[in-house]
Amino acid sequence: MDRDDDATTTSRAALRIALAVGGVALAAVALRAIAKAPAPVYRYVNRWRVRGPIDEVAAVLRDAEAYPHWWPSVYLAVEPFTDGAGDARRRVRSQGFLPYAIEFNARVVDERLPHGFSVEAEGEMQGRGDWQLSADGEWVDIVYRWQVTGNKMLWRTTSWALRPLFEANHDWAMQRGEESLRLELARRRATSDAERDAVPAPPQPVRGTTGIVDALVAAFRRRPESAARPVSP
User: Could you tell me which of 120, 98, 101, 106 has the C-alpha nearest to residue 65?
Assistant: First the structure.
């Protein structure tokens, strides 16, 4: 009986090992297939409305190197450099409320100031963004259109399941952008140090689990009508 029990135990252990190895192999095959699949493509349209002269608003948006100053919740760093062809570019590191950062290079490819400009990006995300501005009395209506391909492995392997979460992450970032732009314009219009100091600081990067959960709830609670819409690759 002891020998039979030992043989049974050994067989069960071998079966568990075989199942585990098989599961790992299947997971590896699935990940390779996903990684080779076309990168996910998203098309975003976001709309802002801020008070101020269109020239001033356009100047703030065009100065990408100042983004970490007035839009710090999203833009962690923007560093200028010149590529091999002599074109001016920016090395960008950004994030939303999700606990990962995105790195890409950007360059302005079309300027229509003060009515807008276009930017091309390449790196962990690749695509084109278009800012369009139109004056409406003392207000400025802003439309941002951004079509992006997610080259980051996280997106390639999980976008099929987590696409709504990535869309909410973008929407949250753009909501913080509109809020931060309004604050920056108020600071610039301040006529005294006291008035300038009274303007609240812009939203800061999300930190910790509680911050992520709060941002997620806020993002889904206020999904704009122009929320991100996915398109097929």
Answer: 106
Q: What is the pLDDT of residues 177-227, one digit of tens each?
A: 999 999 999 999 999 999 999 999 999 999 888 877 777 777 777 655 444
Phi, psi of 22 (to 5 degrees): -65, -40
Which of 133, 106, 102, 129 shows the shortest CA–CA distance to 118?
129
Q: How confident is the model at residue 33 (pLDDT cuts 50, 70, 90)?
A: low
Let me know: does 173 contact 76? Beta carbons within 8 Å. Answer: no
User: Which residue blocks in the chain are alpha helix, DSSP H?
Assistant: 2-36, 54-62, 67-70, 153-189, 193-197, 208-221
How far does Cα 103 stand from its chain's mean position? 10
Asked if residue 93 lies in contact with residue 38, where contact means CB atoms within 8 angstroms, the answer is no
Identify which of 178, 172, 170 has the alpha carbon closest to the alpha carbon of residue 146. 170
The answer to whether the CB of 92 falls within 8 A of the CB of 105 is yes
Burial class (CB in 10 A: 0-12, 13-18, 19+), 199: middle
Reported pTM: 0.80
Pair of tokens at residue 207: 């930190």
Give the mean model confidence (pLDDT) for residues 88-112. 94
